[in-house]
Specification:
Elements (H helix, E strand, L loop, with lengths): L8 H26 L5 H15 L7 H19 L5 H7 L4 H22 L3 H12 L3 H11 L3 H29 L3 H11 L3 H14 L5 H13 L2 H15 L10 H4 L2 H18 L8 H20 L3 H6 L2 H25 L3
Length: about 350
């Protein structure tokens, strides 16, 4: 008789948890398509937390849930690289660099100051600061494995970022009109002051609806993608900082291979592949499946994070993270507008 083919034991242990996360992620992915201002990752975290309230004992699914919340999250970040065309960013995004750098530095400084004054958990402060300054959930997804954040810290940060994403998408188009921003100015404002890509798109689309022929969506998206590149230096800096703070990390204890997050290298390689392919005439639609898979993997990982999160504890500890998110959001909004003013754009 032919030998029976079976999956390795390790894979078998992962399947129940992976299956549970997939069942939760699939409807959340569709809901995110219907309501992009909220987004699939937020739906997935909420769904996971609600299931966790009633599904306490899960020895068979725990290995798969842990794998999804850690490893699948890293795979999602790698796949996000296929959505970055570096040549397009260099062509259009350079004008926004002073504003991007100013808003990122502002958010990180505000996060550090509030962290010190409020004595809040360091990982949560880092995740909210990075998520506010760079690109919301994607930046949190990239940073969390580097600083060894736990699932509750990730869920808390994503929830805070989501709240101010929605507020920005709803308020900024009207605010931009009241301030008299030009179409280019609002594209820069949305791309630098709104956290998540879906909310940037929603805000820019709302502006275009209010100003026919404005076409700010393209400008805002390119600026947002330029911001996304900051994931690379920020995560590398955090990785080295964390490695140097480990016990015995002196001249003999520090090891580059232990500090360097390899999935960030693969993220860079993916963006380089996309750029080279584009220069060779390969249509960008070829990389669309990778971008969609990246989004789904993030939703899958957020479902796992929700399953590992205590909703009651999350709500009780939410005051400080909300305060930090508000401070970062207001500071970025002000600096983005101020930089446009001194640059003569607005």
């Amino acid at each position: 008789m032919p030998k029976k083919i079976s999956l390795p034991n390790f894979d078998k242990k992962l399947l129940p948890g992976l299956g549970l996360c997939f069942v939760l992620a699939l409807p959340c992915w569709f809901l995110g398509k219907l309501m992009p201002v909220i987004g699939g990752p937020v739906f997935a975290i909420l769904a996971g937390m609600l299931v966790a309230l009633f599904y306490k004992q899960r020895p068979k699914t725990q290995a798969g849930i842990a794998f999804t919340s850690k490893k699948v999250l890293q795979y999602a970040v790698i796949l996000l690289g296929f959505g970055l065309n570096l040549s397009e960013i260099a062509r259009v995004g350079l004008i926004s660099l002073p504003i991007i750098i100013s808003t990122i530095l502002t958010s990180l400084i505000v996060a550090f100051v509030v962290y010190k004054l409020a004595k809040m958990p360091a990982n949560t402060a880092v995740l909210i600061g990075v998520g506010s300054s760079i690109c919301g959930g994607s930046a949190i997804a990239a940073t969390a494995p580097v600083i060894k954040a736990d699932d509750e810290e990730i869920a808390q940060s994503i929830s805070v970022i989501f709240l101010f994403n929605v507020l920005a998408a709803l308020i900024f188009p009207t605010l931009g009109g009241l301030l008299g921003l030009s179409n280019e100015g609002f594209g820069l404002f949305a791309g630098t002051a709104v956290n998540d890509t879906s909310s940037v798109t929603a805000a820019a689309a709302a502006w275009d609806g209010m100003h026919p022929g404005a076409n700010t969506l393209g400008t805002a998206t390119i600026v947002k993608l330029t911001r996304t590149l900051a994931i690379i230096p920020i995560t590398l800096a955090l990785a080295f900082w964390r490695a140097l703070r480990q016990p015995g990390a002196g001249a003999n204890g520090f090891k580059l291979q232990n500090a360097f997050p390899m999935f960030i290298l693969y993220f860079v390689l993916a963006s380089v592949i996309t750029t080279l392919a584009s220069l060779l005439g390969v249509p960008t639609v070829v990389f669309f499946p990778f971008k969609e898979l990246a989004k789904f993997c993030i939703i899958l990982a957020m479902a796992a994070i929700g399953l590992n999160t205590d909703l009651v504890k999350l709500i009780k500890g939410g005051r400080q993270p909300l305060m930090l998110g508000l401070c970062c959001w207001l500071a970025i909004t002000f600096v983005s507008l101020f930089m446009q003013h001194i640059m003569g754009i607005w």
